[in-house]
Specification:
Helix content is 40%, strand content 17%.
Length: 782
C-alpha cells in the first residue's frame, strides 16, 4: 500500500459518539444525508445518535436523543423532508438553552455533531463549539457533571452539511435540496406552458428565495423564461417599459405565451419589493395581455428528492463522518460540500461570513459585488441567461461572415435540444450565420442543412429527444460527400453534440484533414449521452435525466412490494459497457449490489451477495434491490442472476426482474441537464468564435492544429477543452468507455451504505481549503 494513500480501514470511530440533527427549513435529501451519517458512523465503529426536532431536541433531551441502528434508516432515502424532524429553536439562542444542550450531550458521551441545515443553524453550531469549554466548566461548578467527564469530553467537533432549497450558502456549488426544488418548479412550469399556449396567456410565477435568486435564475434558464427578477441584480430604472417591449416582441414572433419568473425577494434599484401582483397589473395595463399569477410556495420544499440530491447528500454524509474522525481539538468547524464534481471541506465561519457579505452588499446597493460574492456558478448562470434571452437587433450585432453548423450524433439524450438552442443563440449573438444539420452525419452527406434563426429554437429547452434528428452513422464512409456539403454551404466551424459516435466522428473528420481542406476548420464536441461514457468528461448531457428515470422506477418497484412478503428485485439498466447508470443509480436508489463490466465478478461474488441479502432479510428489512448493467457479463445474464437469487433465496425471499429499457432515454430533460446543456454549449460556441478569429487569414479560415478539434468536458471542478487526438490513449475503443472513470470511486461508498465490508481509498477526500483561494482557482469552471 503506497504511503500517500489513505484508507478507511485505518480510520477508527471506536469509542466516539456522533449526534446528527436537521435544523431550520427542511429540504429534500436531508434524509439521505442522515442515512449516510448513521451508516458510515456505525461502519467505522462509532455510536450514532439521532437528535430529533433539531436544536429543540438537543435542549429538551430525553427521548429526543436516541441511538440509531442500521435498520432505523432503512427506506428513508426516497422520503422528502426530514424524518427526524426540524424546528426553529428560540431556547438554543439563549445561554441557558445551550447549557442544557451541553449537559444532554455530555451525559450520552456525544462530542461530535453533524448539523444539516442553513447558515443560521450552522452559525449556532459554531457558537456552541466556541462556548463548549465554558459550558462544561459551569456544569462542573453546578455539580451536574464530574471533573473527569469534563476532561474526557473537553472538545466538541462540528461538521456542517448545507441543507437549503435556496442554494444561498457561499462556498458550495449546490446545497442539499436545491436540485429537487428545481425539479418541482420545472414540473410546474412545463405544465403551465401547455395551458398558457392554448390561451395565449402570460404567466407570472413566484418561486422561493427571500434573499437569494438562484432558484428563479436557474429555472428561468431551464425553461427559457422571457424575464426574471432576482434580489442580487435588480432591473435598471425603466425596466417596466423594457419588459413590456420584450413581451410584445415575442408575441409578434408568433410566440403564444410569456413566462415571467420572480424570486419572492425580488427588489428594484431602490430596494423596494417587486411583487407578482405589481407585474401582473403592469402587463395588463400596458399590453392588455391575459395574465395569471401562480405562487409555488411550499410545493418547492416537498416531494421526493431527485437523484442528484440523494447522491450529493450520501457523498456529503460519508465525507462528514470522515471529517469528524480526522478532527483534532484545534480543527475549526467545517462544512463539507461539492465543488464541481469534487468533495471539499471549507471553514464554516468563512462561508457564513461570505454569505452575510452578500446580504450586506445588497443592502448597500452594491449589486455587482453581490453577484460576484455568490460565486462562479451563480455569476455564470446570470451571464448565460442574459446572453440567451435578450436578442440584439441586427445593427447591434458584430457581423462575422462566418457560417457555423450544429448537428446531433448518436442516440438521443435529454438536454440535446437545450444545447442546440444555446449554441444557435450564442452563435447569432456573436454575429455568425448558424446552420442546423438534420440526422447527424447521414443527413450531412445528403445535404440536409438549413439556416436556423433565433426564433426557430424558442421553447426547445424543455423538449426531450433530438429535434434536429440524430443517427449513429459515422462520417468516414461518406467523407467525400460531407466535404462537398461543407464546401457548398461554406461551413467555417462545426459543433457536434452527441455520444461516443460523435467522439469517433470528430476523430475521423480530423484524420480526413490531410485529404480534404474543408475539414481544416475549428471543430468542437459537447458530450451528450445517457451512458456517460465519453473520455475527457466526468458528466455528459442526458445522464442526469436517465438517473432520475432509474431512481423513480426503482422507488415505484420497491413500493409495489410494500405489504407483501420479503422480495428482491433484479433491475437491468442501459449504458453499453459503461457501469455509470447502474452504479450511481444503485447509490441513489439504495440498492444492495450493482453488477458492472468494469468490476469483474464471478459466481463466488454472486453467492456472497445472495447470502448477504438473506442475512439482511432476517432482520426488519423487507425489500432488496440489485442493479445489473446490460453488458456486465456475457454469461451472467439478468435471467441467470434472477434464477440464481430465486433458487438461493427460497424460503427467505422471492424475486422479480425488470428490464428498464428505453424509458431511460426518454422524457423531459431534468433541470440539471437543461442547465448543463445550455452552459456547456454556450462555452463551446464562444470557443468557436475565438478560434475563428485566430484561424482567419487572407479571406478564409484554416485550422489544422491538434487543438482546433476539441472535446469540451467537465473535469473535476472545471470545463476543459481537450484535443480529441490526445484523448485516444485514455479510451478503450473496443468497449467504448474511458480507461479511467471517476465514479468507480463511488462504488465502495455504495457497498458501505449497503452493509458490505470493503476497502475505501479516502486519500481523495476533501482537505480543508480556504474559500478565498477557492474563488481564484476556479474562475474557469462552470
Amino acid at each position: 500500500m503506497p504511503d500517500n494513500k489513505k484508507f478507511i480501514e485505518n480510520l477508527s470511530g471506536t469509542g466516539k459518539c456522533i449526534g446528527v440533527l436537521t435544523s431550520g427549513g427542511d429540504a429534500q435529501g436531508m434524509n439521505a444525508a442522515v442515512r449516510a451519517v448513521v451508516r458510515m458512523g456505525i461502519y467505522v465503529g462509532a455510536k450514532v445518535y439521532f437528535i430529533h426536532e433539531g436544536y429543540q431536541g438537543m435542549v429538551d433531551g430525553g427521548d429526543n436523543i436516541k441511538e440509531a441502528s442500521w435498520e432505523s434508516v432503512s427506506s428513508m432515502l426516497q422520503v422528502g423532508g426530514t424524518v427526524i424532524g426540524s424546528a426553529r429553536c428560540k431556547d438554543f439562542r439563549t445561554h441557558e438553552g445551550r447549557l442544557r444542550a451541553a449537559l444532554n450531550l455530555v451525559q450520552r458521551g456525544i462530542t461530535n455533531l453533524c448539523v444539516i441545515g442553513g447558515d443560521g443553524s450552522l452559525t449556532g453550531a459554531n457558537l456552541f463549539r466556541e462556548e463548549w469549554s465554558g459550558l462544561l466548566d459551569e456544569l462542573v461548578q453546578s455539580g451536574e457533571i464530574s471533573e473527569e467527564a469534563s476532561q474526557i469530553h473537553s472538545a466538541l467537533h462540528i461538521v456542517g452539511m448545507v441543507g437549503s432549497i435556496d442554494n444561498d450558502f457561499c462556498g458550495t456549488d449546490m446545497t442539499i435540496g436545491t436540485d429537487s426544488a428545481l425539479h418541482r418548479i420545472i414540473e410546474v412550469v412545463d405544465a403551465i406552458m401547455t395551458t398558457a399556449q392554448s390561451h395565449q396567456r402570460t404567466f407570472v410565477l413566484e418561486v422561493m428565495g427571500r434573499h437569494c435568486g438562484y432558484l428563479a435564475l436557474v429555472s428561468a434558464l431551464a425553461c427559457g423564461a422571457d424575464w426574471v427578477l432576482i434580489p442580487e441584480m435588480p432591473p435598471k430604472d425603466g425596466w417596466e417599459e423594457q419588459m413590456c417591449n420584450k413581451l410584445s416582441e415575442n408575441r409578434a414572433d408568433k410566440k403564444r405565451l410569456n413566462i415571467i419568473i420572480v424570486a419572492e425577494g425580488a427588489i428594484d434599484q431602490n430596494n423596494k419589493p417587486i411583487t407578482t401582483e405589481l407585474i401582473k397589473d403592469l402587463v395588463v395595463r400596458c399590453l392588455g395581455f391575459d395574465t395569471r399569477v401562480t405562487i409555488l410556495g411550499h410545493v418547492q420544499r416537498g416531494g421526493t428528492p431527485s437523484a442528484f440530491d440523494r447522491i450529493l447528500a450520501s457523498r456529503m454524509g460519508v465525507e462528514a463522518v470522515l471529517a469528524l474522525l480526522e478532527a483534532s481539538p484545534g480543527t475549526p468547524a467545517c462544512v463539507v460540500s461539492l465543488c464541481g464534481n469534487q468533495a471539499v471541506r471549507l471553514p464554516l465561519m468563512e462561508c457564513v461570513q461570505m454569505t452575510q457579505e452578500v446580504q450586506k452588499a445588497m443592502d448597500e446597493k452594491r449589486f455587482e459585488d453581490a453577484v460576484r460574492l455568490r460565486g462562479r456558478s451563480f455569476e455564470n448562470n446570470l451571464n448565460t441567461y442574459k446572453l440567451l434571452s435578450h436578442r440584439k437587433i441586427d445593427s447591434e450585432l458584430p457581423h462575422s461572415s462566418f457560417n457555423v453548423a450544429v448537428l446531433n450524433v448518436g442516440a438521443p439524450a435529454a438536454g440535446m435540444n437545450a444545447a442546440v438552442r444555446s449554441a444557435v443563440r450564442v452563435g447569432i449573438t456573436e454575429g455568425h450565420t448558424m446552420f442546423a444539420v438534420s440526422d447527424g452525419f447521414e443527413g450531412f452527406c445528403k445535404g440536409q442543412i438549413k439556416e436556423i434563426k433565433w426564433g426557430d429554437v424558442g421553447g426547445w429547452t424543455g423538449q426531450g429527444g433530438s429535434l434536429l434528428g440524430t443517427k449513429r452513422t459515422l462520417p468516414a464512409k461518406h467523407i467525400d460527400k460531407i466535404a462537398e456539403q461543407m464546401r457548398i454551404h461554406n461551413i467555417n466551424a462545426l459543433l457536434v453534440i452527441g455520444g461516443f459516435e460523435a467522439y469517433l466522428g470528430l476523430m475521423e473528420l480530423q484524420a480526413a484533414r490531410s485529404k480534404h481542406a474543408e475539414f481544416c476548420v475549428p471543430m468542437v464536441m459537447v458530450p451528450a449521452t445517457v451512458s456517460n461514457n465519453i473520455p475527457g468528461s466526468d458528466l455528459s448531457i442526458g445522464a442526469d435525466t436517465a438517473l432520475n428515470a432509474i431512481t423513480d422506477t426503482c422507488d415505484r418497484i420497491k413500493q409495489s412490494a410494500s405489504g407483501t412478503k420479503r422480495r428482491v428485485f433484479i433491475i437491468e439498466t442501459m449504458g453499453g459497457y459503461c457501469g455509470y447508470l447502474a452504479t450511481v443509480g444503485a447509490l441513489a436508489a439504495g440498492a444492495d449490489a450493482a453488477y458492472i463490466y468494469e468490476e469483474p465478478f464471478d459466481i463466488r461474488d454472486l453467492q456472497s451477495n445472495v447470502e448477504h441479502l438473506t442475512e439482511k432479510m432476517k432482520t426488519s428489512i423487507q425489500r432488496g434491490l440489485v442493479l445489473r448493467n446490460e453488458n456486465c457479463s456475457v454469461n451472467y445474464t439478468t435471467d441467470f442472476i434472477y434464477q440464481l437469487y430465486s433458487e438461493e433465496g427460497k424460503g427467505v425471499f422471492d424475486c422479480r426482474k425488470n428490464v428498464l429499457g428505453h424509458m431511460q432515454q426518454g422524457g423531459s430533460p431534468s433541470p440539471f441537464d437543461r442547465n448543463f446543456g445550455t452552459k456547456i454549449s454556450a462555452k463551446a460556441m464562444q470557443w468557436i468564435s475565438k478560434k475563428l478569429k485566430e484561424c482567419y487569414r487572407e479571406g478564409h479560415v484554416f485550422a489544422n492544429t491538434e487543438d482546433s478539434a476539441c472535446l469540451l468536458g467537465m473535469r473535476r471542478r472545471a470545463l476543459v477543452f481537450q484535443p480529441v487526438i490526445q484523448l485516444k490513449d485514455e479510451t478503450d475503443f473496443v468497449h467504448r468507455i474511458p480507461k479511467e472513470q471517476w465514479w468507480l470511486r463511488l462504488r465502495p461508498l455504495m457497498k458501505i451504505l449497503a452493509k458490505y465490508k470493503t476497502s475505501y481509498d479516502v486519500s481523495d477526500s476533501g482537505q480543508l481549503e480556504h474559500i478565498i483561494r477557492l474563488r481564484t482557482k476556479d474562475i474557469s469552471a462552470i
